[in-house]
Amino acid sequence: MAVASRPTVIVAATLDTKSAEVAFIRDAFAQRGIRVTVIDCGILGEPTMEPTISRADVARAGGGDITAMRAARDRANAIPLMIRGLEAILRDLRDKGLVAGYFGLGGGTNAALASAAFALLPFGLPKMLVSTVACGNTRPFIGMKDVMLMHSVVDILGLNGFLEDVLTRSVTAFCALLGAPPVAPTLTRRTCIGMTTFGSTTEGAMIAHERMVRDHDVLSFHARGVGGEAMEAFIREGRIQAVLDLTTTEVADELVGGICSAGPDRLSAAAERGVPQVVLPGAIDMVNFGPPATVPEKFKGRLFTSHTPHATLMRTTREENVAIAEFIADKLNAARGPVAVVLPMRGFSAYDIAGGPFFDPRADEAFCTTLESKLVPSVSVERIDAHINDAAVINRATALLTDMISRSNHSEAP
Fold it and tell me: Do the Cβ atoms of 105 and 141 come closer than 8 Å?
């Protein structure tokens, strides 16, 4: 397994079906002075080009034997093994600083290979996927990472004029990513605050951003599942040093069954890392779905409203709000750093407001009472007689957070 001694663009693909296309990509990069490391993840057929890293190397890195795998002809079990092998090889190349970027191309199998690579590679490193799956629901392939997608339109199955044009333009765009000068980091000079936002908490988020951006870097994450996941990842990587969790609606989706869940680890990273955090339980009054026809039958008869033609919102019940409060309390009780909760008593979203479709003071009070009863004494809780998007609520939340940041910075000073 011969690998270049300096960073190269990684192209991993099943060369038994994609040799011609990968060779075209490799040559297009070479014409622009960019070196490529080709990793063969094919199994059954024979490649028609020479890879940098062979399928035997990939299988071995994944704990298997390519000869045995080919003899078994069990593709269902072989693909996960080859993905594990690719991950092991990429992890080693990444740790040695030998990855300049990752260029993925192909259909479902090759998109799965690219997905594994994207998950391992850091934010800011160029990543691209050229594929027929680069439309529709792309979350399973790109996850939370910063990936450029190019919809190939036609299948990547043999070269033709149209596909060659798509691949050439994709390589050109990728080279621009490689050549972009790095942005001078400012995070070392200013505390970076992660803030969650949503359409129904945008007004409050804008007020918070205006108040905090003068003295801090503020990264806003759209709380549609991947946004919460990304913020959790940024906190774990040390990119974020404080959190204004203004929108915890992803917890409602996780517990009730909506489409915007960020998984069971939501609200975990800040607690584990001990970063200062202030939580406003924004949009816990709703569970998110797609168009009306996509709402599961089990929710028939519930209270709904339309956010857009593509976004249907369902009001949470009193019982669901109790469960959401218990989930949040469990996370915050484990925090190693300072935590405060601000409860807006006149509603949690633009829909949960007097005269709005989701206004339900009893359900909201069930959340507040449960949260207060479950939180440990070290977590401060304040009720404010205002709506979550009102300046009174946001000003208090941001004041609490900036005070925490100031205290934290003072305690760390030599």
Answer: no
Between 139 and 315, where is the model more confident?
315
CA distance 353 to 358: 7
Which range is least confidently modeled, 102-111, 123-132, 185-194? 185-194
pTM of the model: 0.81
Residue 229: CA count within 13 A, CB half-sphere: 16
Tell me the CA distances in angstroms from 202 to 197, 209, 271, 389, one per residue in order.
6, 10, 25, 8
162's tokens: 């149209």
Say if residue 391 is exposed, middle or buried (CB neighbours under 10 Å; 0-12, 13-18, 19+): middle
β-pairing verdict for 192-197 and 148-151: unpaired
The answer to whether 72 and 78 have CB atoms below 8 angstroms apart is yes
Read off the tokens for 35.
Answer: 């070196």
User: What are the backbone angles phi and psi of residue 130, rounded to the nearest 5°?
Assistant: -105, 115
In the predicted model, what is the mean pLDDT of residues 60-89?
Answer: 90
- Token pair belonging to 16: 């038994």
Written as six digits, the tokens of 78 are: 């072989």
